[in-house]
Amino acid sequence: MLDRKKSMLEILALTGLILFLAFLYIRPLNGYLTSFGDNATYVLLAKSVAEGRGYRDIWTPGEPLHTQYPYVFALILSAVVLLAGLNFLWMKAVLVVFALFSVCLIYLLYRKPEGAVWALVLATLSGLCPVFFQFSHQITAEMPYLALSLMALIFIERYAAEEKWLVPAGFAAGVFIGLAYLTRKIGVMLPPAAFIYLLLRKGGPFKKRLLKSAIFALLVAAPFLLWRLRGYLATGEVTSITGLTMVDAYTAHLGPASLGDILGRIKPNLAGYSADIAEQVFFDVTWLGGSLLSWQKALVHYQRLLLPLFVGGGLIYALVKRRRCIDIYVLLYIGVLSIWFVRSGRFLVPLVPFIIYYFLLIIRAAFIQLGKLFRAFHAKPGMGAYILLVLFVLLRIFLVAWVFLMAKSSFAEVKYQFRIEVGRKTHFKAQSLAEQEFLQAAEFIKNKVPEESIILSRKPVHLYLFSGRQGVLFPYTSNKEEVLESIYGETADYVLADGFNRETRAFLWPVVEEKPDCFTPVYQGSYSALFKVIRAYDE
After folding, report:
1. Residue 492 predicted with pLDDT over 50
2. CA 483, CA 512: separation in Å to the nearest integer?
3. I need a surface site. Which of 189, 288, 318, 371 has the fewest CB within 10 A?
């Protein structure tokens, strides 16, 4: 009877949390794109699938097969396109559903090993995390990937507990690993994590565990191999992550990266992600209200160092003491982030619940150790016992205060983002006049430029979404002749030079300004301009 009552209380608590988050997440839904990221790409891929054109770059002349982003998320969005057209509000609603589902999965993942209270705290702090809230309102693959990867991790651990090889849990784990990878390519870390976990798990002869681990990892790697085979047949490239082997993916003329260049990314990437963990996953002290005082400035400096150290300590503790598949997966994920050629706070979204968990875990471990020491000294009263008692009390106060401040600060930032999204009346950043002018240029192109025209720009995907005109991308190189040759080689009819992209300013504007006889201005804004290409130059 007591257990049943306890279970009912847990269900009510989780239901209350989901209802609260549902209100918080649903109210700011709107029909506008919030950034120049991958939003438009996924929208147009969904449109391509919904219209029966296949998984293609419909914004590019010739509509080649798309090989960069796997297709599961676009396939989900295609259902929205079929039912409601290019309705950004309903697409965001799908993301909110995945976000709320992820909160439930976080609770389920930690309910058994950590208890209901800890699981509920983790679910709450994850749901109130600013970066978690932010990407639940952007049409990107982070939220679906988080939900699918959590499902995969849950079933991997259930499969590991089974002695038989062919069981439903193993099949479910394989399905969700495949779906996770085909949502975001970082999911390729799940098969090796499962292999290592199954191999190191105690129970049964080592050779049997090795064979079981290897067969399982190879079978669940099939989606990865098939996706790469498709990409190779379409483009001839063995991998689609060529940016990893470049010095700078956005500056092609710098050439391929050496091993030293790749390893050289580790320090700046880890430093950058340390700041992101401190200020986006946990809390930014500037959200506590008022101007920054001297103690707050000091806290900003030290939290960027201390918080990641706490999280890293928690991960190491978990690997040594428990060694769950989750911990191995997180370690591999962080390893990839440390050498990746692009750093972005969005890459932390699938790690949010684990980052919060490791922070709380290391604090709890410190409690336990201090408690053991205190009991050992208690039999011999003295200064050491009193010091330990004071440390124990202070650490408990610190943890409670930290969780309170984190929740308060996170909720304050979420409320700020909430108000922005509720009041949003335009695409992209409302404060960026250059981005708004891009939309004006797209409207001009839609009304004044012939439909069959090809436009070279930095954002051909977004330009197609808002103007309906196909386009091409210019090469990221300081070689002006190479950029000019690409304009004529791609048979571009127009060139749109925007005013907010680094690559446009560095590589396209210099060509336009140096070769005025090659271009005729047809639209001039304060930041951007549209030019018609003079074909006589090509002759």
Report:
1. yes
2. 10
3. 371
Q: What phi, psi does 494 have (nearest 5°)?
A: -140, 160
Residues 6+ apart with CB under 8 A from 140: 37, 38, 39, 42, 95, 346
- Please enumerate, as own/partner, the contacts of 205-212 that have beta carbons within 8 Å and a separation of 24 or more: 212/165
* Residue 289 pLDDT: 46
Distance (Å, rounded) from C-alpha 343 to C-alpha 336? 11
- Rounded Cα distance between 299 and 406, Å, is 13
User: Which residues are CB-neighbours of 318 under 8 A, at least 6 positions away?
Assistant: 324, 326, 327, 358, 361
46-50, 261-265, 374-378: range with lowest mean pLDDT? 374-378
Question: Would you give the DSSP letter of residue 194?
Answer: H
Gap between the Cα atoms of 327 and 194, Å rounded: 11
Structure tokens that stand for 473 in this block? 């991308």
Average pLDDT on 405-414 reads: 66
Torsion of CA 40, 125, 329, 215, to 10 degrees: -90
Strand, coil or helix: 249: coil
Q: Residue 286: pLDDT above 60?
A: no
Domain ranges for the chain, please list them: 2-422, 433-538
CB distance 186 to 336 below 8 Å = yes
pLDDT of 51 strictly over 90: yes
Helix, strand or coil for residue 248? Answer: coil
Which CA distances in Å does 94 have to 32, 99, 100, 141, 174? 14, 9, 10, 11, 24
pTM: 0.88
